[in-house]
Amino acid sequence: MKLMNKILFTLSIFLSCHLLESCHTKEMNADIEEEKAYFMYSEILPKFYHGEGISLSEFVKRELKYPKAKGCIEGKVYVRFLVDRNGHTSEFEVVKGISDEADKNAIEVVRKMTFKTGIENGKAVDSWIIVPIAFE
Description:
TolA/TonB C-terminal domain, single chain, two-stranded antiparallel sheet, 136 residues, alpha+beta, disordered N terminus, 5-stranded mixed beta sheet, elongated
């Protein structure tokens, strides 16, 4: 009897997982077909692209302005933003900051960035990403 209960329990778990997976897949496909689908994690993530061929870290070093506040401000500001289907950035939000002035400077750097768009099912999609901007 215990063996039969274990088998039934295992079978019910398997079927539940299978049904949930198929529902999740259908929901994802429906989201992709909508005009305004956003992805936190797309198959191919957005990639920083600057026409001059410089890296993200080089771009940040070149564009970042350090706060004029007294004392030495160090740390990372994490900026979350949307990369649209054309590679443009918008909807900036500081997820974790270190000071008001540093946070504003980090957002200004991110505003200047352009990206190769994220890809999902072979199509360009709007994707959310988070970039750390280091103040050292």
